[in-house]
Design a protein that fits this description.
CATH architecture: 3 Solenoid
Strand content: 35-45%
Number of domains: 1
CATH class: Mainly Beta
Distance between the termini: 41 Å
Shape: globular
Structural class: mainly beta
Helix content: under 10%
Number of strands: 27
Radius of gyration: 19 Å
């Protein structure tokens, strides 16, 4: 599908930013228009009070804000707090909970191999102090209005094998993943760990902002199969994230719509953004350094499509193949795709400094 209406971008007074407004008839606009997203200018306002991108659409994402607050320090306590919230929510789907994680959750203090958020809503998991999930990940299935912020999630092999597994076997809507640090290690076989954050099937209105993804072979997969199309109009935003020392999937995208802007990529050894099976992705104002094949469509029976604008490439190399189409530039297009919301762009020259100063856990007092 080809959309030809241009996006209008204008400078914002007092900031080195551009305000980009979606046309009224942008591709699959979804719900009614919402106010412009609160994207930060450079400086100390990267600790967002509300999500940006797709998670701000479809009614927005507020998690457990305004509800009960529980602090946990072990996996036993976290599992109990999740069960209590899910029980209360089933009785009253207006129930809200903020679970603050202060401590290191690991196999030794956990009764489960992963922490399940199933068939519930209105929930926030927020790191407080030292909030770490070590070898234990999170599954989100059949749930909506979920927030995960300020956590370090690492070395996950048990459970689903992902740091966060968003499983749309039952629909998942409105998830905000913000200011977390995800990592594994690279001195193992590429299949030793799975993804840092993966999503599949009927999952939509997700934003990943100000996260660090590092030391991973399989970083972030959206669509686990070329046969997903019946429930796969995913709408995903990646903004202000740092991808460092990774092999691939930054992210890998099948089907749906994606917006990737103002991210910093360094040392991607195989492929970066891999759009497949008809996925439409706007890629803009990102910085790629010391990397191979930043933008590709590889290894599926159908190509995906990119609209790449004003990206900066430093020490980047391109290597195509018979089953791998590469962009050969940071600023080419195989489709014209406009995200159906308003947003603010940081100039690409400022992306590295801004993202490295603000992304990851421990940056915000939440």
């Amino acid at each position: 599908m080809n959309i030809t209406t241009p996006r209008r971008c204008t400078p914002l007074p007092g900031f080195a930013l551009l305000l980009c407004l979606a046309p009224a008839h942008a591709l699959n606009p979804g719900p009614s228009p919402t106010p412009p997203d609160p994207v930060p200018p450079p400086g100390d306002s990267a600790c967002l009070s509300a999500p940006i991108g797709f998670a701000a659409q479809n009614g927005g994402t507020t998690g457990g804000a305004g509800g009960s607050v529980v602090t946990v320090r072990t996996g036993h306590e976290l599992n109990s707090a999740l069960a209590a919230h899910q029980s209360s929510w089933k009785s009253n789907n207006g129930h809200r909970t903020v679970i603050r994680i202060d401590g290191t959750i690991n196999a030794g203090n956990s009764p489960v191999s992963r922490f399940d958020i199933k068939d519930t809503g209105n929930l926030s998991l927020i790191g407080s102090g030292r909030g770490v999930l070590d070898g234990r990940g999170i599954l989100i299935r059949g749930s909506s209005n979920i927030i995960v912020r300020n956590l370090t999630i690492r070395y996950v092999r048990d459970g689903s094998g992902d740091g966060i597994d968003i499983d749309g076997t039952r629909p998942v809507r409105n998830v905000w993943i913000d200011h977390n640090t995800f990592h594994n290690r690279l001195n193992v076989d590429k299949d030793y760990y799975d993804g840092l954050v993966d999503g599949k099937l009927d999952t939509s209105y997700v934003t990943l902002s100000y996260n660090i993804f590092r030391d991973s072979h399989k970083t972030s997969l959206w669509g686990h199969s070329d046969n997903e199309s019946g429930s796969a109009d995913r709408r995903i935003t990646f903004a202000f994230n740092q991808f460092s020392n990774i092999t691939s999937r930054a992210p890998l995208l099948r089907f749906g719509q994606t917006h990737i802007y103002n991210n910093y990529y360094n040392q991607v050894s195989d492929t970066g953004i891999n759009t497949r099976m008809g996925n439409r992705v706007r890629i803009e104002n990102n910085l790629f350094e010391n990397s191979k094949n930043p933008i590709v469509s590889c290894y599926s029976r159908q190509l995906g499509f990119w609209d790449a604008r004003n990206n900066q490439m430093n020490n980047v190399r391109w290597e195509g193949a018979s089953d791998c189409a590469v962009a050969n530039s940071g600023n080419t297009a195989t489709i014209n795709y406009n995200p159906p919301y308003s947003y603010q762009l940081l100039p690409v020259e400022q992306v590295k400094a801004h993202v490295t100063a603000n992304a990851g856990a421990g940056r915000c007092a939440l």
